[in-house]
C-alpha cells in the first residue's frame, strides 16, 4: 500500500511561548510523523525540538528578514510504541505561530523524507512551493507554505490536484497551509503556487516526499526438472 495521510492535527499560538498539539487521530507505531511550524517573531533558536514520544529529528529550517519576520522548522520521526496524546512545541513568547502535524501510514521508515524549500520576502498573494525528486514512483508528497499577512484574515487555495490538509492562521500575522498528493511517478515534480486571499510577506514554501514501504514480493519455490520426473515416476 502506498504511503498516505492517516490524519492531520494542528495548533495555533497567539503571543504564547509553548503549546501542546494533539497527536493526529489514529496514529500508531510505525507511522511517519511530519511537523511543520512557522512563527513570525524571534529566532530559529526559540523553536526548540518538539517533545513527546520517540525523538523528533530536524528536516529543514528557514528564516526570513529580521527577528520580526517569518521563521519555519520542519521536523519528522517514526512513531514509537509509547507515543503521548500530545506533543510539546516552543517558540518566542511574543510571537504568533502555526503548526500542522501529519501522520503518514504505509511509509518506508528506513528512508529520511526528501525535502526542498524556497522563500521570498516580497509581498504577493502567490506562495511557491518547490519541485522535488521523490525516492520512488508512489511517494506521498506534502507541501507546506507560510507567510505574514498584514493583520487581515487569510484563507488559502492549494494547487490543483492536491488535497488541502490544513488552513491555519494565528492572530493577525501568522498563517500557513498544508496540502498532500499521492504521486504516480518517480520523475521530478515542478514548482507549484498556493494562493492566499490577500498579500503575504516573508513567504516560505517546503515540499516533502515520504517514500512508500512497498509491497513484499512472494517468491515461488524453485523445483528442478529432475525432481518433477521423480515425482511422476513414484
Search tags:
49% strand, globular, disordered C terminus, 4% helix, five-stranded antiparallel β-sheet, 234 residues
Textual characterization of the structure:
- This protein has 234 residues and is mainly beta.
- It has one domain (4-213).
- It contains one helix and 14 strands, in the order ββββββββββββββα.
- Strands 8, 9, 10, 11, 12, 13 and 14 form a seven-stranded antiparallel sheet that branches. A five-stranded antiparallel sheet has the order 1-7-3-5-4, with no helix packed on it.
- The longest helix has 9 residues, at 225-233.
- It is globular, with a radius of gyration of 21 Å.
Q: Could you give the count of β-strands?
A: 14
Mean pLDDT: 91
Helix count from the secondary structure assignment: 1
% residues in beta strands: over 45%
Q: How would the global form be characterised?
A: globular
Radius of gyration: 21 Å
For the record, give the distance between the C-alpha atoms at the N and C termini, rounded to a whole number: 44 Å
Backbone structural class: mainly beta
